[in-house]
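hey all, quick one before standup. I had two proteins in the batch that finished overnight and I want to keep them in one place so we stop losing track of which output belongs to which input. First protein below, input sequence then C-alpha cells straight from the run.
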Amino acid sequence: MSGPQVTDPPAIDGRSFAAAQAFLLSAKLYWTREIFPALKRDYQIRAADAGKQPESAAEVAALIGDTTLYRSYAWLERHLQRFKYSGRYGLQPYHAQQRAALEPGIDPAALPPGMLELDDPTELPAYYTGVDIHQHPGGVWSDEIAGFVYERGARTTTPTHGGRHQDLHDRLADAIEAGGAPERLLDMGCGFGKSTEPLYERFRDSDVFGVDLSAPCLKLAARRAADHQARNVRYAQRDAAATGLEAGTFDVVTSTMLLHEMPPKVVEATFAEAHRLLKPGGRMVHLDFHHLPDAFARFIHYGHGRRNNEPFMEPFAKMELKSVLADAGFENVAVTPYEEADGALEPGHADWRFPWTLIMAERPA
C-alpha cells in the first residue's frame, strides 16, 4: 500500500504575493506603532512601582520578560520576519519560482567591462555562513537569486519610512559630503548596491568602489548600476577585513549596517583595514546600530539580535568604539546618534526604531 503522495505547492501569483506581503507589513507597522509603545509604557510603570530604574538588560528582563505583552511582542518580531521570507507567500518561494527569468538578468557577461570582479572564494568566513542572517533562507550568499530576495526584503526593513526608506542613505551621503567630495570612495559590505547608489549618484566625479562577500548580491548591484548607466562605480567580491586593495588610496571608507554583522575581532580587523586603505587625512564614516542610552533600549536591541538571527548585534553594541578606534590609530573619533528621519531623535518619538549611530574617524594627516 503506497503512502500519501507529496505534491509541490501551487504557484504563487503576483497578486496573492503582494497582498500577503502587504498584510505582513501592516502587522509590522501595528507592532511598531502600537505594541512597542505599549510595552515601553508597561515597563515604565513597573519600574516606577519597583522604586528603582533597572541598570542592565537583565534587570529589565526580570521586570517584563515573562509578561504576556512582552512575549507577544517578541513572538511577532520573530515570526513576522519568518513569514516575510519563508511563509507560503514568502520572498524566497516567490522569487524561486521566477528563477529562470531572474538569473539571466544578472549574468556578468552582460555587464560593462570592468564593472564587476568575482573571486569566487572557496571558503567564506564561518561567522558569515554559520547563520541565516535576518532569517534569510540560506543567507545572502548561497543562492543565485539571493540578491533579489534581499533587495525586496530590504524595502521594509524600516517599515515606518515607507517610500522614504532611501532617505537614510541620502542623509549618509550628506554626512560624507560635509567633509568634501571624495576622489576615491570605498563602500564596504555594499550588498546589492542600495548604500552605494546614492554615493555614485551624488559624487559623479568620484571613483566609487563597492565590496562584499556575496556574489549574488554583487551581481545585482552591478546590474542596477548598469541600468542606471553609471560609469564611476565598480564592484568586487572582497572581505572588508582584508580587501587586498592598494594601501593609502581612498579618501573615504564607509559602510551601512555592516559592522553589527561581524564578531568584535573582525570589526577590529575591518577598522585596521580601513586605516590601511585611507590616504593620510582620509575619513571613515560608518552607519550602524550602537547608541543605546538606557537599560530598556539595550534589552530591546539585544533581543532583536537573537530573534532576527544576528548573533553579533549585542557584542558590537557592547564595544567601546572610541577606544577601539583610537587604538587602531584614528583621530577625531565621533560616535553620535543618527537621525534617519525627521523627528526620529525627538524626546516624544514613541515608535520602535533601530539605534542608528554615525561612527566617524580620521586617519592622521
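OK second protein, same deal, sequence then C-alpha cells:
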Amino acid sequence: MWGITGSGDLLSEVVDELQKLSATGKVEITTCLSKAANMVVSWYKLTEKIKEISKRVLIEYDANTPFIAGPLQVGKYHSLLVAPATANTVAKIVHGIADTLITNAVAQAQKGRVPVIILPVDQKPGEIVTRLPTGEESTLIMRDIDVENFQRLKAMKGITVLETPKDIGRFYSPDEGG
C-alpha cells in the first residue's frame, strides 16, 4: 500500500521510484491518495502516471473510507509506504492522531505489525529547494517543530524512516526479498 499525502516536494521523485519498482513486475502497488494529495497529484499532472503504476487507486473520503485499515491489519499488504509525507502528517503520527485515512492507516498497520515506511519532506534545519509544478524552483525554510517531529518519528517503533526517494528502491528491492 502506497499512501500519498499533500506534499508537492519530492512527489515527482517518489513517483519515478515507484514507477521503476512497478516496472519490475514483482510487486503490485495499491495507491491511496489523501484528499490533499488528490489535488496536488493533479496539480503536478501525475494522475495518469500514478494510475499506470498502481493496481488500484483509492481516494480518501474520510478517515475510514475507503476501508484500508482492516486489509492492512490482517496482512493483505506487505507494508505501508507513506511518501512523500507532509509535516502535518508526520506531526499527527508522532502525537498519535489518526484522523485522516493515511494517519489511521499508519496506526492500524502498526497495531497489526505491518511494516510502515515513511519519507517525510521536512527533515533538516535550514532551507531546502523544491520544484513547483511549473518547473520553477522555490526555497522553503524548515520549521524547528517539523524537524523535531522528524526526529520523533525516527525514534518510533514499527516505523522505518527514509531520507530520500532513492531509499524506496533500496528498501523494496524485489531481488533481496524487500
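Flagging for whoever picks this up: The first helix runs from residue 11 to 23. The first strand starts at residue 2 and ends at 4.
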